[in-house]
Amino acid sequence: MKIAVTAALVASAAAFVPAPSARVATKLNFEYGEYDDKLWDQAAKKDVYDKWDPSSPRSGKNFNPFETFKGNSPDASGVYPGEPRYKDPTRGDVNFQTMMEEKADAEAREANPKPGSEKGCAGCKN
User: What distances in angstroms separate CA 29 from CA 21, 59, 85, 124, one per listed residue?
Assistant: First the structure.
């Protein structure tokens, strides 16, 4: 009788033991940009722009840092404010002289856009 009771207790206790699970690490398909958590100034933006390929799909490492979306500029990973994973970038100091240099750069970019960078290209948000 004792053996039957012991066997019943062991069998019922097995119901409360968690089943072994094979957990698999989740890979998020998002890569942060080269300048994530670094200074996001004009020099960094120019570097990202020079590496940008408008014909390749837009990603955290392939985006136009000077493209605006709904009036906003992207962070160092190409993410705009209000979107998931947006991080407020570390910005450099700004003064009038720097702003005039940035304006001249913007005018030069508009006058000579990258081939294939028209709106709707694979590497553009708009």
Answer: 24, 10, 12, 19
In this prediction, residue 85 carries a pLDDT of: 92
What is the DSSP code (8-state) at residue 69?
A: B
Looking at residue 17, what is its pLDDT? 62
Distance of alpha carbon 68 from its chain centroid, rounded? 16
20, 84, 100, 116 from 80: Cα distances, Å: 42, 9, 25, 22
Note the pLDDT tens digit of each residue in 34-79. 999 999 999 999 999 999 999 999 999 999 999 999 999 999 999 9
Residues 6+ apart with CB under 8 A from 89: 35, 40, 75, 76
CA–CA distances in Å: residue 69 to residues 23, 74, 76, 107: 39, 8, 15, 19
- Helices vs strands, H then E, count in the chain: 3, 0
What is the Cα–Cα distance from 123 to 27, expressed in whole angstroms? 23
Distance CA 35, CA 61 (A): 9
